[in-house]
Amino acid sequence: MNPQTNISLPRPTITPVSQPFWDSIKQGKLTLQQCEKCLDWVFYPREHCPHCFHDELIWREASGYGHLVTWSVIYRAGHPAWQELTPYIVGIVKLEEGPSLLTHLLIEEKDVFHLMEVEMDIQEIGPHPLPFFKKKEEN
């Protein structure tokens, strides 16, 4: 998946709080924050736990597995650089650890179904690798 265009892709917004997330993606891993007090997993990266408001969040490696909750097929991209890749699918994946995230899906539209098992697949898109999800491979 590599757009051939003169328009540059939008980059992720990387902040001091989210930097460990992006560093782990570059290393081929998914890390999430976990609250040291209530032990709930947290995504998107924050300075305090949204569940108990404790300010001690630690980064832990996550499984990279989840279930597809909902999805949408994109025919008209929100950014011109993505237009030539349409149609593509974005979806909400509920991770095994609990949090949900919005992501691109590397699955054909005809093969997508509610609560299908998915796994992370990091794709090199522009200067930043991004976490996409694909159908979980059978073991």
The 3D shape can be described as globular
Radius of gyration: 16 Å
- How would you characterize the largest beta sheet? 5 strands, antiparallel
- CATH-defined architecture of the largest domain: Beta Barrel
How many structural domains does the protein architecture include? Answer: 2
CATH class of the largest domain: Mainly Beta
How much beta, percentage-wise? 35-45%
Key phrases:
139 residues, mainly beta, OB fold (Dihydrolipoamide Acetyltransferase, E2P), 2 domains, 5-stranded antiparallel β-sheet, 3-stranded antiparallel β-sheet, 8 strands, globular, disordered N terminus
Describe this structure in words.
With 139 residues, the chain is mainly β. It folds into 2 domains: 15-62, no CATH class; 63-139, OB fold (Dihydrolipoamide Acetyltransferase, E2P). The chain has helices at residues 19-26, 80-83, and strands spanning 31-35, 41-42, 57-61, 65-74, 88-95, 100-105, 117-125, 128-135. It has a 5-stranded antiparallel β-sheet, covered by helices on one side. The chain has a 3-stranded antiparallel β-sheet with strand order 2-1-3. The protein is globular.
